[in-house]
Write a structure and sequence with these properties.
Number of strands: 12
Number of domains: 3
Helix content: 40-55%
Strand content: 15-25%
Order of helices and strands: EEEEEEEHHHEEEHHEHEHHHHHHHHHH
Radius of gyration: 29 Å
Structural class: alpha/beta
Largest sheet: 5 strands, mixed
């Protein structure tokens, strides 16, 4: 199952540790007919001396903690001098064997890190270091050729609304591959510029489509750094702005009615999610309440009607007719007298060329893929009950959503 070239297994001993728990120790000895290799260049080198015995945590056998035991040799390399020999089961000075790190990293993708540590009776730190090692290997060996479409977005993590509590993420959203390419702290121009620089000019020059929201910092950087790509504004964020405007109208009207002592204020308060839901999905009593709201010509009813009318915008196939409908809708929103809806209309008019790219790129890129990946990232953070440090957050996101290559093993204990 685990063959280590240049080494042989010696005595296998079962004993009890200081806590009275059973352990298995597997002794390893160097093969007498094979010379040790330099840990830097992997070239055979003559022996120099031997160090003190070390132990590495190995994959549990029959749910019993298992360790590899070996006295490392030092070899005299002609190029690197006196160095510790290459040990195929070890990675640097880590006290956990490579096979064990592979197992911990695999289960850390399906369970929380704490639950993984409990299952394998190890520490949270060991799980963290195993995932870190796997991510470092994956980032060093991943291939970024063929990236034609990327998505750029911002996500919130941790507590509070400070700049450090936001992350800038860059995804690949091609049909054949959807993965996380890069993540950085804050949502500034400098952060996005750093991300594109990390991907490299060769990758950036091949990008044909870019999908993002209307965050000004993103629009500025993408317009300057990825000029050749067609910039598509994310449909999800446009709909989100309209929904937020409807909710602002509802809250303002509810406050006015509550101040005047009218009972309709309580009804509006309980209709928040009914109004934000897609109209075709509102049925039964909720549908009757919305019809009554429309009949009363309330501000909230008019805002809801504007929201439902805008849904027709996404059904157009012609860019020309879609632009005409957008002009019509923005005019209706301006005439409504509702400030939140007027604000959205002005925003859409300012970004109309980029919004029209959604129709030009239809079928080539899916803007919904960005929000789908965002939701999966939020699942990662919730499953682990949040991460106290940014480094842990970054490693977890790459590990779960990066689709990174993994090192090869003689046998995988999964």
């Amino acid at each position: 199952m685990q063959r280590f070239v240049g080494f042989v297994y010696a005595a296998v001993v079962m004993k009890r540790n200081e806590r009275g728990e059973e352990e298995i120790e597997i002794g390893i000895e160097p093969h007498r007919g094979i010379t040790g290799r330099c840990s830097q260049c992997q070239k055979p080198s003559p022996g120099y001396d031997r160090l003190e015995e070390r132990r590495w945590r190995f994959v549990p056998l029959w749910n019993i903690a298992t360790y590899l035991r070996y006295r490392p040799r030092r070899v005299k390399c002609s190029e690197h001098g006196i160095v510790v020999e290459h040990m195929p089961w070890s990675e640097g000075t880590r006290p956990v064997a490579r096979a064990m790190m592979d197992v911990l990293a695999y289960w850390a993708r399906h369970l929380s890190w704490r639950e993984t540590a409990r299952t394998f009776r190890t520490s949270w730190e060991s799980v963290y270091r195993s995932v870190e090692w796997m991510v470092e290997y994956g980032l060093a060996n991943r291939v970024l050729k063929g990236v034609k479409a990327i998505g750029v977005d911002q996500i919130h993590w941790g507590r509070g609304k400070k700049a450090d509590q936001f992350l800038t993420v860059i995804y690949q959203i091609d049909d054949g591959c959807r993965r996380l390419l890069w993540v950085g702290r804050k949502r500034t121009k400098a952060t996005l510029q750093k991300g594109l620089k990390t991907l490299g000019p060769e990758v950036v020059s091949q990008i044909q489509f870019v999908c993002s929201d209307m965050w000004k910092a993103f629009l500025t950087v993408l317009g300057a750094e990825v000029k050749q790509a067609m910039h598509v504004l994310d449909r999800f964020h446009i709909v989100q702005h309209i929904n937020q405007a409807v909710d602002q109208v509802r809250r303002a009207e509810s406050a006015r009615l509550r101040a005047s002592g009218k009972q309709q204020a309580a009804e509006l308060k309980n209709m928040r999610w009914k109004l934000l839901r897609r109209g075709s999905r509102v049925l039964g009593k909720a549908r009757q309440k919305i019809k009554a709201l429309l009949a009363s010509k309330a501000d909230t009813g008019r805002a809801w009607m504007l929201k439902e009318t805008f849904a027709h915008f996404w059904t157009y196939k012609s860019v020309r007719w879609a632009a005409a409908f957008l002009d019509y809708w923005c005019e209706e929103a301006e005439l409504s007298g509702l400030e939140p809806m007027q604000k959205v209309a002005r925003m859409l008019q300012n970004h109309q060329p980029l919004i029209m790219n959604w129709f030009r790129a239809k079928g080539e890129v899916s803007s919904g893929a960005v929000e789908g990946l965002n939701n999966k990232i939020r699942v990662v953070t919730r499953r682990s009950c949040g991460f106290r440090t940014y480094d842990a957050m970054e490693i977890a996101l790459h590990h779960n959503r990066g689709r990174l290559p993994e090192p090869e093993f003689t046998h995988r204990f999964r």
